[in-house]
Amino acid sequence: MVSARTLLPGNEVTREGVDHWLEAVGDEYPGDIEDLRTALDLAWTCRGQELDAFGNQRMHRLLSVAEILLWLELDAETLIAAILQDSSECTDDTLREAIVGLGDDVAAMVDDLGRIGALTRYGAIEKVDIASSENLRRMLLSIADDVRVIIIVLARRLYQMRRLKQQPEAVRRDFARITMDIHAPLANRLGIWQLKWELEDLAFRYMEPGKYKEIASLLESRREERECYVAEVMDELSERLGAMHIPARVMGRPKHIYSIWKKMQRKGIDFQQVFDVLAVRILVDTIPHCYAALGIVHGRWKHIPGEFDDYIATPKGNNYQSLHTVVIGPGNLPVEIQVRTEAMHAHAELGVAAHWRYKEGGESNADLERRILWMRQWLEQKSDDSAESEAIEQEFEAANVYVLTPASEVIELPAGATPIDFAYAIHTSVGHRCRGARINGRIAPLTQPLHSGDAVEIITAREGGPGRDWLNAHAGYIRTARARNRVRQWFRQQNHDEHVAIGKASLEHEQGRLGIPRPDLERIARKHNLNATEDVLAAIGRGDLSPIQVLGGGQKPPFRESDEAARPPAASSRRTTRPRRAGGQFIVDGVDDLLTHVAGCCKPVPQDPVVGFITRGHGVTVHRQSCPVVRKLRQQAPERFVEVSWSEAAPADALYPVDIQVVAADRKGLLRDLSTVFANAEIDVIGVNTHSNRKTDTATLRFSVEIRDIAQLGRVLDRLAQLPDVSEVRRRV
Questions:
Q1: Are residues 192 and 68 in the same domain?
Q2: 8-state DSSP, 723
Q3: In whole angstroms, what separates CA 581 from the centre of its chain?
Q4: For the segment 224-246, what is each residue's pLDDT rounded down to a tens digit?
Q5: Are 200 and 259 within one domain?
Q6: DSSP letters for 677-722
Q7: Mean pLDDT throughout 597-620?
Q8: Residue 340's domain spans which residues?
Q9: What is the pLDDT of residues 74-88, one digit of tens each?
Q10: Higher pLDDT, 92 or 1
C-alpha cells in the first residue's frame, strides 16, 4: 500500500516546518537537495500559504503529494514538479525563469500539470459522465508527454480522497464518482496498484457507504482470527520451503474492500465464497523455484479444480506473470496462494503490469495502448540511458487529440485537426455556420491545429455555408474526412448555375494568380468523364475539382495539328522520328543536338505551356507561350520557333525560378513573416526586391524563388495570402 504516514505536523505547515520536511527527506535525494530547496522556496512564494478549494493549505497539500511520490520511489524531478504544480498559476516572469532553471523536464511537467489543472477550471472533470469518461481518460494521457505527470495527478487525487471526509455528502459522492470513473482506471491501466486500490476503496466508501461498512465489518469481525490463520499458513510454508532449500519470502496479501465487493457482484456469490480473502504470496528468486514452491503447496494441501492459473508459462497480454492457485488449507478453509519471482513482483507492484483490459473489459484503442505501453516502458527503465529513453519517447506519436466543448464534453479528433473539424464533429449545421473560433478563451485562426486539453468555442453566423477555401488542401482548414465530405455535400446541393459561376470565378482567379493561360476544358471534361465544359466549372464550384488540378492537368499542346502548315521549312527539314530530351527537362521536337535553357523574362515552370526559340550560339530558349517577348519574336523571326514540351523524365529534384509579388500593409516584421512562410515550405529565396509607398503605407515585395512545380507554387501562394495585412499575392510574369 501507499503509506499514509506523514512527516508533516497537523494540517498546516510553517516555513520552519518546510525546512524540517526537507531535512527529513534529504537522505533519499542527497544529490538533489539544493534543487528541492529551490522548489520549496518557489512554491512557498507562489501562494503556498493560501487555501485550496477544499480548505487545505496549499503547501501542506503539495508536500503531502510529494510524500506519496516518495513512498512510490519516484525520482527527485518528479517530487520537484509535484511541489511546483501550482506555480503554473503564477505570472511572475522571475518565478518562471527559476522553474526553467531546474531543468527542461521539470518545466515541461509543470506546464502539463497546469494544462490538466485547467480542465478543472473548465469543469471538464467534475461534469464528466460515464459515457464520456473514457475520452477524458484518453485526454489526460494525451496531454501528458511524461508518464510522471499522470502519477503526480493520481497522487494528488489520493491526497484529496484521504481528506474528503470533511466535505458535504453531495461533494463527497460526486468527487468519489469521478475518482472511480477517471483516476482509479488510470492507475489500473498503468498498474500502479498502490494508488489504484486505495483510490477505489476510498471512492467506494463514499459512493456506497452501507455496502462498504457491511464488508468492512465482516472483515473486521474475523480480522484477528484471519490474521492468525494466515500467519499459521505462512509459518508452515516458510518451514517447508526452507527444508527444501528454496530461498523465499512469504507474506500475507491484503484484499481490499472494493475488489471483494466487485467479485461478489461479478460472480453472484456471498462473502463466505470469496476464496482470496485469505491469501498468501510466495516470492522466490528464479522461475524453477516458482514451480518447486507450487509443488510444495499442492503436496501439502489439495487444490480446488478450476482455480489454478499459470501466468508464467502463458503471461497475460500485458506481460503480467505469476502462479495463482486456491487450496483447501487448515480447517478446510480456502486459501489463495500466488507464487512469483521477486522481479515479477516488482513488475506488478510498481506499475508496469496493468491488466486493465481484463479488469475493465473496455474496447481496445490502438493509439491509447501504444501510449500506455510507452509509459510502462518508461517505468521499467532502471538505467540512466538517455539515448534509450529518447528512443522510447520518439517511438510514440499521438494519433488523436482530445478537446473540450463549452459544455465540457470531450471530443476525439485526429492529430492536426482544426476548429472547423471540431465544429463538424459537434454538428453539421455548426460546421456550415462556423465563422471563427476561440481556443482557451482567445480568438484563433480557423487553420490553427488543436491540442489535447484545448477548450474550443465555435463562433457561428445565423445563416450561410462553408467557405470555398475550406476544400483547398493547401490552405489547411480541414483535416478530417467527415468535415471535408460535409462541405462537399453542401456545395453539391447548391444551384448548378451558381456552381458554374463560382467555378469560373475560382478558375479565373487562380489563372491570374499563377499566371497560367486558360486550359482546354474540353480535354479536362473527357479526362474526368464529364459531359461538357460547364460540368468542369460546376465541379470546381462544388469542390470536386480544385483549380490547380484543372490548370495543371488540362493544358493544350503547344502546337495543334492545324499548325503544321505554318511551321518554318528549316525546322521541318531537320525533323527526327524521335524527340530528344534536352537538359533532362524539355523535349525538343525536330531539332537535334541543341542545348536548352529557361528564359529569364517569363521563367516557365512545369505545366506551363511552353515554346522554344532557336538562338544564335546558345541553343533553344524556352519561353511560356503567353510571354510578351514571344509575341514580338514571332513578328521578327517566326521561322526560328520550334515545338517544345516538358519531359516526363525530368529530375524529381529539379528546381525552377519563379517571381512572386506580394502587396501588403507596410508594417514591422512583414519581411520576416513572409520569409518564415518560404522557410517552412522549404523553398529557397534567391532574390528579394522591396518598395514602400509612404503615401498609402503599402509595401510591394518581389521574391525570386525556386520551386518544384505548379502545385508547390499554389501552396505557398495560399500560405502567403493568409498572413495578416497581405492584400495581394500572385505570380509575376
A1: yes
A2: S
A3: 47
A4: 777 788 889 999 999 999 999 99
A5: no
A6: HHHHTT-EEEEEEEEEETTTTEEEEEEEEEESSHHHHHHHHHHHHT
A7: 82
A8: 218-355
A9: 888 989 999 998 876
A10: 92
Domain assignment present for 48: yes
Residue 660, strand partner residues: 703, 731
**Mean pLDDT calculated for residue range 444-473:** 89
Domain match, 539 and 589 both: no
User: For residue 7, is it within any domain?
Assistant: no
What is the pLDDT, as a whole number, of residue 323?
95
Residue 556 is classified by DSSP as P
- Asked if residue 2 belongs to a domain, the reply is no
**Amino acid sitting at position 434:** C
- Same domain for 111 and 24: yes
Among the candidates 553, 588, 623, a domain finishes at 553
Cα(175)–Cα(211) distance, integer angstroms: 18
Neighbours of 372 (CB within 10 A): 22
**d(C-alpha 237, C-alpha 249), whole Å:** 10
- Cβ-Cβ contacts under 8 Å for 334 (sequence gap 6 or more): 275, 278, 304, 326, 327, 328
Rounded CA separation 190/148 (Å): 11
CATH number at residue 176: 1.10.3210.10
How many CB atoms neighbour CB 52 within 10 A? Answer: 14
**Residue ranges of E strands in 171-318:** 248-252, 279-284, 302-303, 309-310
Q: Which residue bears the cell 478543472?
A: 120
In a domain, residue 66? The reply is: yes
pTM, rounded to two decimals: 0.57
**Average pLDDT value for residue range 397-424:** 84
Residues 572 and 670 in one domain: no
Higher pLDDT, residue 68 or 320: 68
Residues 341-393: tens digit of each pLDDT: 988 886 666 543 333 333 444 455 555 555 556 555 555 443 444 444 444 44
**7 CB contacts (<8 Å, ≥6 apart)?**
20, 21, 24, 25, 63, 67
Tell me the C-alpha distance between 514 and 608, whole Å.
10
